[in-house]
Structure formats: C-alpha cells, structure tokens
Amino acid sequence: MLEICYTSIGTIHTPHKSRENMPIQPLSASGIKASVELDPEYSKGLRDLESFSHVILIYHLHKSEGFDLDVMPFMDTKTHGLFATRAPRRPNAIGISTVKLNSIKENILQIEDVDILDGTPLLDIKPFFSKFDNRSEAVSGWLDKKWQEKNREIKSDKRFITSK
Amino acid sequence: MLEICYTSIGTIHTPHKSRENMPIQPLSASGIKASVELDPEYSKGLRDLESFSHVILIYHLHKSEGFDLDVMPFMDTKTHGLFATRAPRRPNAIGISTVKLNSIKENILQIEDVDILDGTPLLDIKPFFSKFDNRSEAVSGWLDKKWQEKNREIKSDKRFITSK
To answer: CA-based Rg of chain A, rounded to a whole angstrom?
Structure first.
C-alpha cells in the first residue's frame, strides 16, 4: 500500500448545500448550474478548453467518511459490492462527474448538469473527448435493469452520511 | 489549498513497461490485455461488478513528475492549455481510463483495451454506466479536429518523461 497525497487546485460551488436530496448523477441533475473556481495560478492551463462542450471533473468527496464493502445504493433495494456501485463512501473518496461546460472567464468555469456538493475540493479537470470517453456498447449490469424500472428523479438520502 | 491523501488499493499489471511507445488512450489500445490486482482485503467489494462490460479505473500516474500549464499533446503539433489536454503531467497526477472488463476471479480483474503503465497504483474502480457516463452529443474542440486528421495509431513519445 502506497500513500499518495494531492493538493486541491480549486473549489466547486454548487446549489447543493446538503448531502440529502441531491441528484445522484449528472444526468439527473439536468439544468443545474454551478461554477468551478480554479486557483488563479492555474488559469493559463484553461486555454482552448472552451471549445469543448463537456469536461470531466475529478474531485475529493470531502464529506464522505469510511466505507462498507457491501452497500445498498440509491438506485436499488438490494445490496451490491461497493465497486459495483457509485456510492460516495469508498476506500479513496474520489468523485468523477462529466458536466456541461458553458463558459470560462479567467479562472471561473460556468458548468451545468451538476451533481456535486457545494464546497467540494477540485483535483483535476480533463476535457471530455467522445472518441476516448464514450462506450456506446457498454452493458451496465444491475444498473441497466434498475434504470429501466425507475425514473431519473431518484435523489440521495441519508444513507451515506455518517454522524461524525 | 487543501492536502488530500489517499492509499492505493491495488496495482495494475500491464504489458506497457516503458512510457515510450504506449497507446495514448484506451481506444488506441484496442485488444491489449492486462490485469488489476486488488488488495485482497477489498475483494468483497467486487460482488456484482462482473455483470458490467466496462469499468472506470482511477489511478495514480506514478511516473509523472511536475507539470507545465502550456503543453504540446501527443495529438497535436501546437500547444494547448494543460486542462484542454489529457497529458499525464498535471498538478495532481490522477489518471482515468475506461476499460473492458473480461472476468473477475477473487481479487484479480482481467481487463482489455488498456493504456496504463505497468505497476500503476490503483485508487478506485467504478462501474461504467451508459446512462451516467456516455455523452453522445459531446463536442471536443481541437481534439475532434485532430482525430479526423490522424489515425488512432498515435503512440506516446518522450515528451512527458522527466529525467528525475
């Protein structure tokens, strides 16, 4: 086991102030606007990003503590192995979201379709590239089945919030 | 700025022993097989993952050191802002790859379409879910244009390897 330390490069500001009643993924957060405040020392690295319609944000799930290997995700009433879910409580609390990029001005990115908690520390921004990132043929196990049964309005509840 | 520390949860074993002449993304690594060795204490978390055709691996780019905000990526002969590229030298050296999942036996995942360096420390495994992760409508700026000009056989070279 190797310890790996990173330093946040900015902060994600969103309307989601609480971990309850949040959209559980970007697609169920359709139209929700937010912003990324990149630390100004990195602004130069944003050049040419505006020509992309979507970006992948990688961030630290800063309110997530601990984990269980067997979890009942928001999308189901049965348990699954942790790595077969997108549950936020994980050995390493790293989140990824693909969001719409609306504009960039200096060090501020205006984004849309945001399922991220307010104040989340940003670790990286990567351009979304269809040829690298889309897998139109993907089969998604229990999630495919549950998605057909439920609608996309599922929200988070208290289940991954620890009282610590 | 906030320091965030993670601990690797396993190791990715691949045929790519050197940072030169590597496929630059999973789609140009078509058919290349590799394995993920999850630390056995996490094996239980893999339950139900085998029903997914693809997984997203999040890992530490352990050979990457330092970064420039202005970079010339493998796909172009002009420079772009770092965050408009997938170059491996970044403020936080976090890599993500969507790979095919072929099988799981105990703590070992057999995977395919792998663009990852041998010995890479694993940080997280997430199931790829079409509804969350595909963006068929995405527009990808300079990358779309270059992809049309070049073929998918582009390989890495020495440009992001520091001598340290």
So the answer is: 16
Contacts (Cβ under 8 Å, ≥6 apart) of B154: B24, B28, B74, B75
Across chain B, how many H-helices and E-strands are there? 2, 9
| A32, A15 contact by CB (below 8 A) | yes
Nearest CA of chain A to the CA of B33: how many Å? 17
Alpha helix (H) residue ranges in B5-140: 130-133
Give the closest of A80, A83, A134 to B134, CB-based: A134
Q: What does pTM read for this prediction?
A: 0.90
How close does chain B come to A164, measured CA to CA in Å?
A: 18
Count CA atoms within 13 Å of residue B56 on its CB side: 26
Q: A30-87: per-residue pLDDT in tens?
A: 889 999 999 999 999 999 999 999 999 999 999 999 999 999 887 788 999 999 999 9
Amino acid A88 reads P
Q: Which residues pair with A136 in a beta bridge?
A: none
Residue A164 CA from chain centroid, whole number: 22
ipTM of this complex prediction, to 2 decimal places: 0.89
Set out the domains of chain B in order of their start, with CATH numbers. Answer: 10-129+137-160 (2.40.30.70)
How far is Cα B98 from Cα B96, in angstroms, rounded to an integer? Answer: 7
Residue of A nearest to B98 (CA): A133
